[in-house]
User: Fold these one by one.
Assistant:
Number 1:
Amino acid sequence: MKKVMSLFLVCLFLFAAGSAFAADKTVIRVAHTIAPDSHYNKGLEYLGNLLSEATKGQIEVQIFHSSQLGSERDAIEGVSMGTLEMTLVSSAPLANFTNAFLVFDLPFIIQDRQKAYAWMDGPEGQKILDSVLSKGMVALGIWENGFRMLTNSKKPVAVPEDLNGLKIRLMENPIHVGTFKTLGAYPVPMPFGELFTALQQKTVDGQENPLIIISTSKFAEVQKHLSLTGHFYAPAILLINKAFWEKTLTDEQRKIFIEAELKARHWERNYCIESEKILVDSLKAQGMEVTEPDKAKFFDAVQPVYKEFEEQVGKEAIQKLIDAQK
Ligand code: EAX
């Protein structure tokens, strides 16, 4: 009986110690809108593993994919207010919060990925990231979503005229919407979480996203035509709540985080570049018809967009990003 009793006490002690330990653990919930096998999810898993290892399990990253916690706009609002710790989003929906990221939304502004990375990771990129500080957020770094390609269920798109009258879903961003208007399409801004159903039910004819999203979101099931336009480059911004970053995390944890984020950022960008190499063939194998569009014609057709948004984006900001890639 005594033996049983002491065993019970030992168990009770271990249980209490275990839960006290668990209470020391800091959980970071991170939301994103795309699939569990997407580049965002893989990059966040990589970051989570680095953080867990370096802090001996003190920090745990919990990933909520597929818009489980709402749209990108919802997630940004959540991180801004502190109801969510972290999110990884395209920079485009940040247009609702600051103008600083708009320069990335101009069509064809990013041509050289490597040079653009260097610029984004340098002081100019930092200035842009700092624009969210006043919104209660810290932008930790610029990851990659990717070059956006056009898909639709109606016809091959080789020249801008082919877009005439097509209903194309876009992110909620004024420059993206303006660009597709200029191209003669009918732009339909909508959160990503509603997109698959909208394509399936043909409320929209097409959409545009990087190949890796077209693939992991299984758009080949509802879209026949893929046009390799690469008209926008979408950076992905890792945002964390400012009070959480400054007050909940310790100095030591923040230091670990900064190092881990840098590693994860490079890892995620490389993962995108590597995946892209096989994705055109893979999407063909899934039944998509692939068109190499006349990019020069698209480039010429969107030039009025630069004039239209020049004031809002800032002439200087535009020129700096272009010059950085020379
Ligand atoms: O950021 O909404 C979109 O099309 C984005 O590419 C997606 O949510 C990932």
Number 2:
Amino acid sequence: MERMKDLAYYNGRITRIADMMIPAGDRGFYFGDGIYEVAMVFHRKIFALEEHLDRMEGSAAMVRIGLPMPREEIGRLLQELADRVESECQFLYWQITRGTAPRNHLFPAGVDSNLYVYSKPWPGVEMADDYRLVSVKDTRFLNCNVKTLNLLLNVLAAQTAKEQGCQEAVFVRDGIVTEGSHSNVSMIRDGVFITHPADNLILPGVERRHMIAYCGQLGIPVEERAFTLEELKQADEIIMSSTSHPSMRVREIDGTAVGGRSEELVGKLRARYLEEVEKLREK
Ligand code: PLP
């Protein structure tokens, strides 16, 4: 099989990413009427595939979008597509939208949902110790647990962060820290791992879940509870996590130096993550 540098898939058609054309009638285009997932591919195997498929099913069910094919078939297809890309390490994205139809708010009748996938080479596991955050008001809707394509306020928050010389924004709603614009936020305080409960105010991140599991394995106590920005600033360590950036240590929030006082625990969590990645080699 001749492998491609990168690949896009849309309802059965395969091209390079830059060449993919999607009909303007795809409801993802004019309503953002769809859900998505991102997974990493290491050693050409999809990391945490079942967890991503679980969340995909959950998001789709919450917004009443039918899957274009059974979950198992989507999983098989994603792995087949990843196999066709040259790089062993990839950033794999897929989205499911509520079909193609003339613009009308009502669900279109008799139309299948659309599956778009792309996979591109990725340099490897990305971790960092020098994240700067800016806090922004969380004025998003109350279904942040749905991994929807509607990311306008997340986009604006990420741009604000960039313009302030920061790597990520952290949302604060009614005094409570919820999550980042494209990551979850967790902290370590007195040896305890603390993170916002997985309710409707945050996306239930796969890496957030992994870190909670690693804490269990390492004997680190976990508290899933709300905390304020002031509390976050007092934390021993602050970690932003996402699939593509699993462990970004924070050193500044709104210009104030923070964290950097529990490097050993962060190191242990990172080592557990890397062990899981290595397990894919044998799969
Ligand atoms: N929160 C938001 C708003 C996100 O967009 C993301 C990832 O894109 C996350 C959290 C982290 O989720 P995951 O660890 O599953 O990538």
Number 3:
Amino acid sequence: MEKITVAKTAGFCFGVDRAVKLVYAELEKGGRVATLGPIIHNADVVNDMIAKGARIVSSVEELEPGERVVIRSHGELKSVLDHLERQGVTCVNATCPNVIRIQRLVAQAEAEGRQPVIIGEPSHPEVVGVASWCSHPLVFDGPEAVQRWLAEDPHRREIPLTVVAQTTCIRELFETSCEIVKKECTNAKIFDTICDATQKRQTEAAEIAGKVDVMVVVGDRKSANTRHLTEICSKRCSRVFQVEDADELPAGWARGCRAAGLT
Ligand code: F3S
């Protein structure tokens, strides 16, 4: 191989890195530590945490007395955090500050009598969590859904809307949704809450993939971010391998290639 380009943005984003460090810090303090769901879509890191004594629970009911719980970077349902507080469980909230900002925006919108609108994947844990910070959220997965909702009742154009995005929302989906809102609605506040880290990583991966013969995307199979990177690279490069580690690369993966990229 003549040239290998490694993405500068490769690796954990700030929010996930912070969550992982918070778990290790809790483990170092001793005592029992659980995470509510896997803290990160990365089997190596999760297995290491388990080896060091962490437990993964899927619901608050599974927590044992005296166990401290870490909330993952996607955030949690408000009702779950309230329940933990009522029960006196020591809770380390590793929700990414970018996600907390969105939770606050929707809560504040509702307090001001506005209708919160979230553009994102309705069943994604981050979106489900954000939606729980207000009592009547609207979640749209893209411009068609926004248009349909507005077309159902002409009076909806006059409802004061506050629009936010899932942190990992595909930019084009958010922007086309906002164009409809700006054109049709009389009172809309729009907050571009797409995470900068995701955006930069996707842009850089696309740039590298456009210049190399083979592109390798390393990430957990369950991660939406990993899948998005593979999709983006595949549009620019005809030879893309998505793997969890180097052992998964097939024999001859770089045969005949002069330049490789890695994210
Ligand atoms: Fe990561 Fe937080 Fe962005 S978890 S992808 S820095 S929203």
